[in-house]
UniProtKB/TrEMBL annotation:
Protein name: Leucine-rich melanocyte differentiation-associated protein-like
Top-rank taxon: Eukaryota
InterPro entries attached to this UniProt entry: LRMDA, LRR_dom_sf
Organism: Potamilus streckersoni
Residue numbers spanned by region Disordered: 154-181
One Pfam family recorded for the sequence: LRR_9
Compositional bias of kind Basic residues: 160-170
Length: 181
């Protein structure tokens, strides 16, 4: 091993071991190496909660589909672009209910130099992107907050866009047909 190289395990395959939880020694070793690539989690398709505090995770994190993940803590990481990070989460973790991103540049708050307006904008945008979110950081999402998030960031999903455009096309086709007769 060359000078400066780490002796950390870079890959850990635990498939087909009938595990109900990740062994402590794996967590201790894996926790030292987590950066941008979370694809190693592909071996844990039923994972429901994941704590990745104090790592080097960035906005461009790569992760597998995690259909059951509902709780994610990524406090004290290197997440700077909220839109990029949330786009990945909304696609890969559709059931996200609890998200904690404290002390990341993308999550402005009083504690990291953000203003109240920046903090509220961060909350509203995050809530608008994760429809099942119930708790953001350490605060419950209220119905009023969700309504405001929807009002400010009215996001059109691709499936709704297709349906609307196909309805418009059908509607205009019917109108053209009526005009011909």
């Amino acid at each position: 091993m060359e000078e400066g190289e780490s002796n950390l395990i870079r890959k850990q395959n635990m498939a087909f071991r009938s595990l109900e939880e990740i062994p402590r020694e794996v967590i201790d070793e894996a926790g030292k190496m987590v950066e941008e690539d979370l694809k190693f989690l592909v071996d844990y398709p039923n994972l429901k909660s994941l704590v990745l505090d104090h790592n080097n995770i960035t906005s461009n994190v790569k992760m597998p589909e995690m259909p059951y993940l509902h709780t994610l803590w990524v406090n004290h990481n290197q997440i700077k672009n909220l839109g990029v990070f949330l786009a990945t989460l909304s696609q890969k973790c559709p059931k996200m209910r609890i998200l904690s991103m404290m002390n990341n540049e993308a999550a402005p708050s009083y504690f990291n130099g953000g203003s109240y307006e920046q903090y509220m904008d961060y909350r509203h945008y995050t809530i608008s992107q994760l429809p099942h979110l119930a708790i953001l950081d350490d605060t419950k999402v209220t119905p009023q907050e969700r309504a405001e998030a929807c009002r400010i960031y009215r996001m059109v999903t691709p499936s709704k866009t297709r349906k609307k455009s196909s309805k418009r096309q059908r509607s205009s086709s019917f109108q053209e047909e009526d005009q011909r007769t």
